[in-house]
Amino acid sequence: MLTEIAKTNMSSDGERLQIFDARPYLNAQANRLKGGGFEDHRQYTTSDITFCDIDNIHAVTKVYNKLFEIPSSPEVFNS
Hints:
Number of domains: 1
Oligomer: single chain
Structural class: alpha+beta
Helix content: 40-55%
Distance between the termini: 46 Å
Order of helices and strands: HEHEHH
């Protein structure tokens, strides 16, 4: 599916589809060994995969969600 998405994004300057995986590369490899999901860059010849090396994406998600609480509960932010 990503190959088809990349085809729709092709430009004359050779721009490639960028795929960002939030995990560290080693975590992705370990997940792959356990039978989990992992994008194999050899299958996506028109794409580039970048690992963002975020160790605990769940903690990042919690912080992101807390940011949305600030306007409705500024007292939480002040404490």
